[in-house]
Write a structure and sequence with these properties.
The chain is α+β, with helices and mostly antiparallel strands and 203 residues long. The protein folds into 2 domains: 107 residues, no CATH class; 81 residues. It is built from 3 helices and 11 strands. The protein has a 6-stranded antiparallel beta sheet with strand order 3-4-5-6-7-8. The chain has a 3-stranded antiparallel beta sheet with strand order 2-9-10. Strands 1-11 form a two-stranded parallel sheet. A hairpin with a 5-residue loop joins strand 6 and strand 7. The longest helix has 38 residues.
Length: 203
């Protein structure tokens, strides 16, 4: 059985928020404009948008995967309107894939909702990042070890009295793999913190 694909984070994708389009008065039928994404005052991407009518927005852009030829995209996305309790109306996208009513679409090859792209929110990603640490503590507890995952390597743990050698070797192998993953996550977190601090100093 193939392993289920890990979910990405919404922060890893460019977001098209219909509330932002409404706030910037961009939903008037007949309008055509470029919508851009910026990072540190530098434009990193843009798409062409045309408001065909009250219920249709058209997206035009080019995407390219590594090693492949560029692909030109030109497709409509349906807009729904709902009445607000205190008056006025609120617009929603209809996801081009599942047709769910959503406020945000995320830019893969095609802009889709987070459910179709299997995306988590960053807070959910945080709990996923914590999982290897929790697994390491649990495996160490089963081996009768009170020391933490980064106190000393798994291979230094003594075999508990009465545990079969084969079972012990299997659990040590599992623990070593989990702790290697946990260490990689820790290094990534430290690198992100260092990068953020460097950017802050440069601002």
């Amino acid at each position: 059985m193939s392993r289920a694909r890990e979910k990405g984070s919404t922060d890893d994708y460019r977001t098209l928020n219909i509330s932002s389009l409404k706030r910037d008065k961009c939903l008037t039928p007949g309008q055509s404009f470029d919508w851009s994404w910026w990072r540190r005052e530098e434009k990193v991407a843009s798409i062409g948008i045309e408001i065909e009518d009250r219920y249709t927005i058209r997206l035009r852009y080019r995407s390219q995967r590594y090693g492949c030829d560029p692909v030109q995209h030109d497709y409509p996305v349906i807009i729904d309107w709902t009445t607000c309790h205190l008056g006025g109306e609120r617009p929603w996208f209809r996801c081009p894939s599942c047709h769910s009513r959503v406020a945000k679409l995320y830019g893969a090859a095609v802009f889709l909702c987070r459910h179709c792209l299997r995306l988590n929110y960053p807070s959910q990603q945080s709990s996923k990042r914590d999982r290897p640490i929790e697994q390491a503590w649990e495996l160490r507890r089963r081996l009768g070890c009170d020391a933490g995952p980064f106190d000393y390597p798994a291979e230094y743990i003594a075999r508990p009295k009465g545990m079969h050698r084969k079972t012990f070797a299997k659990r040590i192998g599992q623990l070593a793999a989990v702790e290697e993953q946990a260490l990689g996550i820790l290094e990534e977190s430290l690198a992100r913190i260092a990068g953020a601090l460097t950017r802050k100093k440069l601002e």
